[in-house]
Amino acid sequence: MTIEPFRHRDISAFLELAAMENWIAECWELEFLLSRFPQGCFAARAKLGEIAGFATSLKHGRSGWIGNLIVAGECRGQGVGERLFIQTLQALRSEKVETVWLTASNMGKSLYEKHGFRSIDTITRWVGTGLGRAPFHGGEIVGGSALSSVIDIDSQAWGDRRSQLLAATLERGRMLSSAAGFAGIQPCGDAMQIGPFSALDGGTAGELIEAALQMIPGDVKVFIDSPDSNRAAGSIFSCHGMRGGGSNQLMYAGEVPDYRPELLYGLATMGSCG
């Protein structure tokens, strides 16, 4: 078994593995990660060159994120996942990252705890449908707020500036914004995702979610990955007919982050970048 760089030509193999696990994974996320932090993305190959697994990571300012750790079914139980994980962790630490984030399933949590990660929150996937009647059209920014304002609000939630991730996710969809919050709406497979989504108060968050759902047709499924520690978020989503589904643990290692979940309503991606 060898651990090698994850290359653009490997994307199709990753997507095949992801489909087997019913992951919502899209080509744009992988292209983004490989263009922004290629030194932190790895592929595992068996002796004959067949793909055994993948792991990706992304550096922000002082923090980083590990995501997309996946191992082919026939290669599990051989330590492949741990080797991939260690490679990504070392890549981030070599860049002097102070805090490393990830989301963990119940199955993967023990591996991360072994390497010093601890749970800080639970991320629940809220599922609903749009409230609008017109087709969704992306590619525009509503509200006139500059990206710098969005980055500032997001940084208050995460304790770090995540400029590249925010620009990439918001450019591919639509952004609703005000002086006290913002919500991105972006395609997510056959559904739509609301996120990144942060607000300085619950009233602003309620206005943003109402406006976002009105922009999505009523026959389209909607996902939001939101922290349980933000109790206002769950109440707002429930009032709009959304229901909580599966959940993962939000974990970190390194310096304790200046994390403020009361400002965080929706992650930017479904686990791959935060």
- Low-confidence residue ranges: 138-145
Q: Regarding quaternary structure, how should these chains be classified? A: single chain
**Net shape:** globular
Integer count of domains:
2
Structural class: alpha+beta
How many beta-strand runs? 13
| Residues in helix, % | 25-40%
Distance between the termini: 29 Å
Order of helices and strands: EHHEEEHEHEEHHEEEHEHEE
The CATH architecture of the largest domain comes to 3-Layer(aba) Sandwich
By DSSP (H or I, 4+ residues per run), the number of helices equals 8
User: CATH class of the largest domain, please?
Assistant: Alpha Beta
Mean pLDDT reading: 92
Beta-strand content:
25-35%
- Give me the CATH fold name of the largest domain: Aminopeptidase
Largest sheet: 13 strands, mixed
Integer-rounded radius of gyration: 18 Å
Explain how this protein is built.
The chain is α+β, with helices and mostly antiparallel strands and 274 residues long. The protein folds into two domains: 2-97, 3-Layer(aba) Sandwich (Aminopeptidase); 124-245 and 258-266, Aminopeptidase (3-Layer(aba) Sandwich). It contains eight helices and 13 strands. The chain has helices at residues 11-20, 27-36, 80-94, 109-114, 147-158, 163-171, 202-214, 231-239; strands at 2-5, 42-45, 51-59, 63-71, 99-104, 118-129, 140-142, 174-178, 181-188, 191-199, 221-227, 243-254, 264-266. Strands 1, 2, 3, 4, 5, 6, 7, 8, 9, 10, 11, 12 and 13 form a 13-stranded mixed sheet that branches. α7 (202-214) runs parallel beside α8. The two termini are 29 Å apart. The model is unreliable at 138-145 (pLDDT under 50).
